[in-house]
């Protein structure tokens, strides 16, 4: 998706929103930007922004995935998510 798009996209809750609002919500200012989000659409860590070297990016991505996986498996995260209204 272009960070300059003007149309609507489907957000994580199934609602159609304008692309600029989505970009602003996740603080996307450059491409590529990868934001790992939980089931409720909340970011689970800092965004991965840019790409300089394939090996460095792969290592950053692996670390981010390990961190976010541990986060969503933690009992306190699951309990908080279960208490949120749907």
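-> sequence recovered:
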């Amino acid at each position: 998706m272009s960070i300059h798009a003007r149309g609507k996209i489907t957000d994580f809750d199934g609602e159609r929103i304008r692309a600029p609002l989505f970009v602003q919500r996740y603080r996307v200012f450059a491409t590529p930007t990868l934001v790992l989000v939980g089931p409720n659409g909340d970011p689970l860590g800092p965004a991965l922004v840019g790409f300089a070297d394939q090996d460095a990016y792969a290592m950053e991505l692996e670390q981010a995935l390990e961190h976010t996986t541990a986060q969503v498996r933690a009992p306190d995260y699951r309990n908080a998510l279960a208490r949120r209204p749907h």
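The chain has three helices and four strands.
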